[in-house]
Specification:
It contains 11 helices and 13 strands. With 391 residues, it is of the alpha/beta class. It folds into 2 domains: 126 residues, Alpha-Beta Complex (Aspartate Aminotransferase, domain 1), CATH 3.90.1150; 255 residues, Type I PLP-dependent aspartate aminotransferase-like (Major domain) (Aspartate Aminotransferase, domain 2, 3-Layer(aba) Sandwich), CATH 3.40.640.10. It has a 7-stranded mixed beta sheet, sandwiched between helices. Strand 9 and strand 10 form a beta hairpin. Helix 1 packs antiparallel against helix 7. The chain starts with 7 loop residues before the first strand and ends with a helix.
């Protein structure tokens, strides 16, 4: 009997797969043993759930350099975190500065407020040296710039912004600094204290190897304490008050938290800490080099940018990005095609008319995966040439 091809998963920038066994085991164990509602009762099941929630807050606060477990606000994902961060602190008449390669999770909340006539916003170029990027910010910042919001690393590029230097600039002039860490958390070191980040928004299901449905705001300052709430409801404390509590994290955590998912996230963070961020980054960069070297030997492949990291973005001449993704899927290779919810990034890359194919790596990928992937790309090109010859 012919054995089925092994699946090669290269869509880790969307969500990492597989998850560590410790993560999946923690989710199941929590559902079996700690099924109470955290913060909603004093019985042993509720207390077990609350202990898991608090342990994850402590682990995350330590991981990201926050001043205490209460500085961790759990959200459904990075998008929810960014919406809370942006919409809670902005006021009528404010100006916002965003990068020119932002994901829609930054662009759309900001643009929505602008379309409502509440704020204005402009963009700055995120490419270049540290001094060039800071120069771009200085040129576009205004006296009423209340916040600067940008991705640490865009989702279609390995460009890493000088977050510490941008943070120092913002802190000096009193501008709030909100960072989209969707593609950097777990891949590169982040410390909200050292980098002067007011609000770091991160996913649990990507570089932290937790389950989908988890995300966080890591508060690096008290800015959120006086912010507007997006949702109101039960918080487990101050139940007789009509307003949400004015303390973190309860102010922004309305309703029941997903305890099993947070139990998985706790183990995901511990997994990353055990391996080490530097080791993960180096392993992904090594895979990138292998993929880039092999793809660059193929004249029909158009590669975008040359910085090593967790993603490689490309197109094949004569084929749409969607077709390439479909053909790779037939070979049991999972990549992502299209615009990756990031029109600004594709405009900056020069792929706004075509989109692109993105392969992205995790600590579980191997050199064999890259060989299988690049061999499949070569096969697609070969089959395309045969079609053209017979047409």
């Amino acid at each position: 009997m012919k054995s089925e091809k092994r699946t090669v998963y290269l869509d880790n920038a969307a969500t990492t797969f597989p998850k560590p066994d410790t993560v999946t085991n923690a989710i199941v164990r929590c559902m079996r043993e700690s099924g109470g509602n955290p913060g909603r009762g004093s019985h042993r099941m509720a207390l077990r759930a609350a202990e898991i929630i608090y342990a994850c807050r402590e682990e995350a606060a330590n991981f990201f350099g926050a001043d205490g477990a209460e500085r961790i606000v759990f959200t459904m994902n990075t998008t929810y975190a960014l919406n809370i961060a942006v919409k809670s602190v902005l006021r009528a008449g404010d100006h916002v500065l965003i990068g020119n390669m932002e994901h829609n999770s930054v662009l759309r909340p900001v643009a929505a407020l602008a379309e409502q006539g509440k704020i204005t916003y402009t963009t700055f170029n995120v490419r270049g040296t540290t001094e060039e990027i800071l120069g771009n910010i200085r040129k576009t910042v205004r006296t009423n710039t209340r916040a600067l919001v940008c991705a640490h690393i865009p989702n279609t590029s390995n460009v890493e912004l000088p977050i510490a230097e941008i943070g120092a600039f913002c802190r000096k002039r009193g501008t709030l600094f909100i960072v989209d860490g969707a593609q950097s958390a777990g891949h590169v070191p982040i410390n909200v204290r050292d980098m002067s980040i007011d609000m770091l928004c991160v996913p649990g299901h990507k570089g932290l190897y937790g389950p989908q449905g988890t995300g966080m705001i890591v508060a690096g300052s008290d800015a959120l304490l006086s912010g507007n709430t997006l949702m109101e409801g039960g918080s487990g404390i101050h139940s007789l008050d009509r307003r949400m509590p004015d303390v973190l994290p309860e102010r922004y955590e309305a309703g029941t938290l997903p305890t099993p998912a947070i139990a998985g996230l706790l183990e995901g963070i511990r997994f990353v800490k055990r391996i080490g961020i530097a080791e993960i980054h180096d392993a992904e960069a090594e895979l990138w080099h292998q993929a880039y070297d092999r793809l660059s030997e193929m004249p029909s492949v158009q590669l975008y940018e040359k910085k090593p990291g967790g993603v490689i973005v490309f197109n094949i001449d004569g084929l749409s990005a969607a077709d390439v993704s479909e053909l790779l899927d037939r070979e049991r290779i999972c990549v992502r095609s299209g615009y990756h919810c990031a029109s600004m990034a594709h405009r900056a890359l020069g792929t706004i008319k075509t989109g692109a194919v993105r392969a992205s790596f995790s600590v579980f990928n191997t050199q064999r995966d890259i060989q299988t992937f690049t061999d499949a790309v070569r096969k697609i090109i070969h089959e395309r040439k045969k079609e053209l010859l017979h047409s």
